[in-house]
Write a structure and sequence with these properties.
Pfam families: YgjP-like. By secondary structure, the protein is an alpha/beta fold. The chain folds into 2 domains: about 80 residues, no CATH class; about 150 residues, Metalloproteases ("zincins"), catalytic domain (Zincin-like, 2-Layer Sandwich). About 35% of the residues lie in helices and about 25% in strands. The strands form 4 sheets. A 4-stranded mixed β-sheet has the order 1-5-6-4, with helices on one face. A 4-stranded mixed β-sheet has the order 7-8-10-9, with helices on one face. It has a 3-stranded mixed β-sheet with strand order 11-13-12, covered by helices on one side. Strand 7 and strand 8 form a beta hairpin. The longest helix has 28 residues. The chain is flat and about 70 Å long. About 0% of the residues have low confidence. It binds zinc ion.
Length: about 250
């Protein structure tokens, strides 16, 4: 995806353009100026995956004009330039969202492994280096139970029976369902608000009745989850944040 900022340009003298890298979110990004024969406008772009800032404009743009334009664009750049990804780990003292509540991990050194949830504290007993793995295993077990409980109530309403519920870690989908009635969920839904994971559960359950995304399918989803559009939107806008947990 390319984002762009532009400014109409007044003609100046031809100059050589070498710009120092620009610091955004504490990271240096090279600035490239490319002159275009017929251009009369300064444009600034970056791409989400690109690692540089590209300015295009007239051949005779003055360095000072480009610098002034860059300066003017700084606020815009800082607002819209993607933040570098900061991954989060399930380690001691970290608070993470879990099925609609915040849980804080308290590690206790121990030779044998165990986990105890006490209100919003998750006591994790194990060698320190095993914390991450143990918490992840616990999240997956709890989340499977959570989805099973939803289906205990919701599946009879649709008169369907999922044959198996499993968790995985797909990159691009939150849930799936096959013709044998096996429903898979991303374990990362445990980190989303409850309404959101509930919607995904309902979405997949409805596929046992309608193996498509027809109007009839969405009507069925709506009958069990009236505000489903809000939760779809949440996943589109904020779903990426669930993938920052490692
Ligand atoms: Zn679907």
């Amino acid at each position: 995806m390319v984002f762009c900022q532009k400014q109409k340009f007044e003609l100046g003298q031809k100059t050589l353009k070498n710009f120092p890298p620009l610091k955004i979110h504490n990271q240096d990004f090279p600035v490239i100026y490319k002159s275009l024969a017929k251009s009369r406008t300064l444009r600034l772009r970056y791409s989400r995956c690109g690692q540089q800032i590209l300015i295009t404009g007239p051949q005779f743009a003055l360095r000072s004009q480009i610098e002034a334009f860059l300066q003017k664009s700084m606020m815009w750049l800082c607002t819209y330039f993607p933040q570098p990804k900061t991954y989060k780990n399930f380690t001691h003292d970290i608070t993470f969202p879990f099925l609609g509540h915040d849980l804080t991990i308290q590690h206790h050194a121990a030779r044998s492994s165990g986990i105890l949830k006490e209100e919003n504290i998750l006591h994790v007993m194990c060698p320190l280096e095993d914390t991450q793995q143990l918490v992840l295993r616990w999240i997956k077990a709890q989340t499977t139970t959570y989805f099973r409980k939803i289906y205990e109530v919701q599946a009879p309403i649709l008169d369907v029976t999922p044959t198996h519920i499993r968790l995985s870690d797909p990159k691009t989908r939150w849930g799936s369902c096959n013709s044998k009635g096996v429903i898979s969920f991303s374990w990362r839904l445990a980190l989303a608000p409850r309404d959101v994971s509930f919607y995904v559960a309902i979405h997949e359950l409805c596929h046992l009745k309608e193996m498509n995304h027809s109007k009839a399918f969405w009507k069925l989803v709506e009958s069990l989850c009236p505000d489903y559009q809000l939760y779809r939107q949440w996943l589109k806008q904020k779903g990426f944040s669930l993938h920052l947990w490692r």
